[in-house]
Amino acid sequence: MKAGYKLMLILLLGGLVGLFFIKGPEGEPILSLSDFKPDVSIPDTQALMNQVDAIRANFADGADADSNTASYSASYYRWQDNEGNWQFGDRPPPGVNAELMTSNNISVVPAVEIRESPTASQQTDSRQPAENPLLPGNALNTLCQAADIEGQLQQSLEERKAAL
Questions:
Q1: 70: nearest Cα among 79, 62, 78
Q2: Which residues, 6+ apart, have CB-to-CB distance to 92 below 8 Å?
């Protein structure tokens, strides 16, 4: 029994060590010691700061014409509840020590116009959804078709199980 364990251990170690010598598709060993070194790369902080400055410069005007967003400043209160969680609001609850906060460059995005969906009598097929402006192209129709195919697959699996 002990000999069996020793043999299994030797085979396992031999297999692991062999990966350092067996050539992979590129002609290099499958494993090397460099595979075990962590890849710790320090980002270029100056490049990151330049990107941040460029973003700030783009939004300094207060409005971004490409996305129809506007930038505003606002005041709000923050306080901690009994469990120590931070809470935010335009008015603090009575008896709470709240701190007045001011934020600049708050981006406001206009709301999407919501279209009314057709009534049940107007829809010919209950599986066909109304057009959704938030999904690109026919994505919603594709999802409905995928659901139909999934239903057909489920039905064929049940028929095969019944046949067995």
A1: 62
A2: 77, 79, 98
CB of 76 within 8 A of CB of 101?
A: yes
| Distance of alpha carbon 88 from alpha carbon 79, whole angstroms | 7
pLDDT the model gives residue 63: 47
Residue range(s) defining the domain that contains residue 151: 126-159
- Whether residue 140 is contained in a domain is answered as yes
Residue 48 included in any domain: no
Render 15-63 in DSSP notation, one character per residue: HHHHTTTSB-TTSSBS--GGGGS-------HHHHHHHHHHHHHHHTTSE
Report mean pLDDT in 10-residue bins for the chain, 164 residues: 88 88 86 78 69 69 51 78 87 87 71 64 54 56 76 85 82
Per-residue pLDDT tens digits for 47-58 = 767 777 777 766
